[in-house]
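User: Assemble these into one structure.

Assistant: Restating your components, then the assembled model:
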Amino acid sequence: MAQREQKKIAYDAIVIGVSFGGLQALLSLLPSLGADFPVPIMVVQHHAAQADDFLARHLDSLCQLQVKMAEEKEMAQAGVVYLAPANYHLLVEDNQSLSLSVDEKVNFARPAIDVLFESAADAYGARLVGVVLTGANNDGSKGLRCIKEYGGLAVVQDPQTAEAPSMPEAALAACEVDHVVPLAEIGAFLNTLLMGKIKDERRTSNIQH
Amino acid sequence: MTTDHETSKIEVTLLLEAIYLKYGYDFRNYSSAHIRRRIRRRQELTGMENISAMQHRLLHDEEFFQTVLYDLSINVTEMFRDPAFYLAVREKVVPILATHSFIKVWHAGCSTGEELYSMAILLKEAGLYDRLQLYGTDFNELVLQKAREGIVPAKAIKDYTDNYQRGGGISSFSDYYTAKYERALLAPELKKKILFANHNLVTDQVFGEMQMIVCRNVLIYFSRELQKKVITLFYDSLCRGGILCLGSRESLQFSGLADRFSQLVDGEQIYQKMYE
């Protein structure tokens, strides 16, 4: 902890999981992130198996950050948003490169949020922020608990602002979440957290549930 | 001091070393995020206290090792997976294969064989069946055994039929199986053209001179170094002008051999080895 306080930024990456209502949530969140965002962002959105790269291109055109489909074995770069491709799990390796897999579905989903979160926790340890957004299932809660066990930060969309509240609710039930934030404020929250403008107030925040 | 989680990473590394030294299967250059996930899942299922306990057991209990080996092989597959790929093979690859007097096709890492049977159907419909030999290889004897049986779950047939049609099938998919209760037996005439064999991409050598090699969604599990080695193996196992088919998210970009192939179809990972 003492070491962390000496550094301006306490985190090296953000992982985001979103399901039902995901397009709207990502359209609200990602464009609000600043152009000099200092860490990579990996996103799993459950979607139809046959989806192409349209979502990545669309988001890329609306965001200050680069948004792209994750390519296997590419290094996760600061200021880039990586989307898991349809039908593949997205994982992070210890050297912070990205991997894809066609393993069984997890929580009936491929890509699955738990798979990304758990592997990212291995790769980044305590220097990881996990964000669970709207969704109609419970994917992501096991992964968020894992991030917490490794000492990372857990952020959950306020279920009252979620198109489908079950996924954020399941995450809240699964572990001690650090911050519960309304959708419209998550972007600003992450900007503040990662741009080093305020001290990390984990576990003492006013917006904690 | 290391945390429990760091200790568990160390344990996985040691377990892979133990598997290699004892049984000769080399997973040391696989994606560690993937391997770790599989090993931890097995640990959870068996209720073992830690991964070191798993290592102890698999060193002394070959049956348990076989279970872990099955965990570590890639067993998720379906017939005509990615229909657009099969459509591209029909339209762009078949005319090239048709120029050969005899056609050898190797599915490397074929698992339970669904994609190999799909290719057999496609090449049969393309009229190439009388000068065709298909090979399916995997390092796992258990999945090869299933592949030889050629039985798929009846409940998968609906999806497979849909894939087949979208992949450009010109007949009726029901011509190729006999459904019996919850299982569907693939047509014996398909098996006639297929030879299944044990081959390990990581530790074995060139497999023969092929007109086409299909290896889809296997390389994604390998490190870049291992990918490079295996693509070199494929290059050496292809005839001039031979075809290499990879998974939709795989590429030759980092293989060091990208300039020895040309991409045959835009948007599909289908390559042709240069004639030089």
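The mean pLDDT of chain B is 94.
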